[in-house]
What we know:
The protein is mainly alpha-helical. It has helices spanning 3-31, 51-65, 71-94, and strands at 35-37, 43-45.
Amino acid sequence: MSRPLALFAAAALAFAFTRLLLAPLLQLFSGGGLVRASCRGGTVPTALGVLWPLALAVSGGWLLAVGVLPAARLAAGLAACGGLGVLGLLDDVLG
Length: 95
């Protein structure tokens, strides 16, 4: 598989995975009290940044499987994105 096609497939996979998990996570976070008031008076769920590491894991796994992305780069990206995701979640929960 060519590199551009593999990157496009990984982006499409990450988008589909995010769309699949968005509704359940919105319901989970709204029910768990992880919401804030918007400037218009509505509620906005927070902590949705947890989707980034999950989408990166799925799309990165695909790129690793087709041989486009080295394992060391995927591990570094997952560690950085996961660490920032956890930091953001802690900020939303405790902050």
